[in-house]
Amino acid sequence: MNDKYYMKKCFDLALKAKGRVLRNPLVGAVLIKDGKIISEGYHHGYGMIHAEVDCFNNLKEDPKGASLYVNLEPCSHYGKQGPCTKEIIKRGIKKVVISNLDTNPKVSGIKELLDNGIDVVTGILEDEGLKLNEKFFFNIKYNRPLIALKYAQTLDGKISSNTGDSKWISNKFSREYVHKLRNDYDAIIVGKETILKDNPSLNSRIDGGIDPVRVILDSNLSIEKKIKDFKIFDLESDKKTFIATCKYSTNKNLNIIRCESKNNRIDLNDLVNKLYAMNLGSILVEGGSTINYSFLKENLVDRIYEFISPIIIAGDRSKSAFSGRGVDNIKYGYKFEIEDIKRFDTDIMIGAKNVYW
Ligand code: AOF
Ligand code: ZN
């Protein structure tokens, strides 16, 4: 078996913790001795033991002289966990094979391994590794969560009719895929209007799905008195529902994120920073055209999932995905590149990423 085979194994192990690592990376590790896998491990979740240590804990034989495969450069700092490099050195590992360097400035594990006479190979399946941990690398680079917008529109680019009706534009296969997306993001943001209008649960209703933290934008806290009316405040979920608001509240039954205000609305940069401080590394925004435009204007749209359904509803008053004044010239448009095109029966989904990252 070659390096790529074992690195792929690390990716598979790492993915077992998908949805659980928050701002941390997905990391898997395998130990190879005499051409055999003698142990496997992975980073189980935010704040929990690292993949390398998990791999050592699962050992049934002495790993002296073994090669360690791990998709991320082993850490060398004291964080919530101790440095993996110390453990690697202590166990007498001969060679460490890595996919990606850790861009966390606190980490310089390779140097420490080399200084201790351990062979190091890097860059195995590097692009796949970068993709696997794109949220982690984004978080480190921009010091904020990765933010994606999701919406469904008609063939003529409308997200609701002239009466505000939007149920349903996309088909059930597209909507099933949204549950998968909710599983992939740490938090979901919606506007108060969505709660009032649709009474959604905003959980991930797929097998083994992990719910996102739910955040409702409500600058005036007008939902405060009505929480009994909405499912989202009475969910069986291990994640909380928060209200982001500019108002103070003494209501102990509410989870409030108090935000600065900007133009009488929630300052989205402040909110996003607060969510990041709660270790949430990725956010899915399921808003309407006003919220979508607010994020766009603040340069807080890193990715878009656009579902397109082949119907035309027309109408000057039917909304499109982004409101606001818009740009005067096409050349001033916000630029994205297409990452992904999926077909869901009669619908398609376009995945696009902002060109700046
Ligand atoms: C590894 N193996 O499995 C992971 C690493 O607070 P801590 O101690 O958990 O440290 C988190 C940082 O450690 C994280 O930002 C990243 O740089 C690295 N994660 N490193 O050697 C692992 N999860
Ligand atoms: Zn570590």
Automatic annotation (TrEMBL):
InterPro entries found in the cross-reference section: CMP_dCMP_dom, Cytidine_deaminase-like, DHFR-like_dom_sf, Eubact_RibD, RibD_C, RibDG_C, Riboflavin_Biosynth_HTPR
Chain ranges of the CMP/dCMP-type deaminase domain: 1-121
Protein keywords: Hydrolase, Metal-binding, Multifunctional enzyme, NADP, Oxidoreductase, Riboflavin biosynthesis, Zinc
Cofactor note: Binds 1 zinc ion.
Domain of life, per lineage: Bacteria
Keyword Cell cycle: no
Protein name per the record: Riboflavin biosynthesis protein RibD
Source species: Anaerococcus faecalis
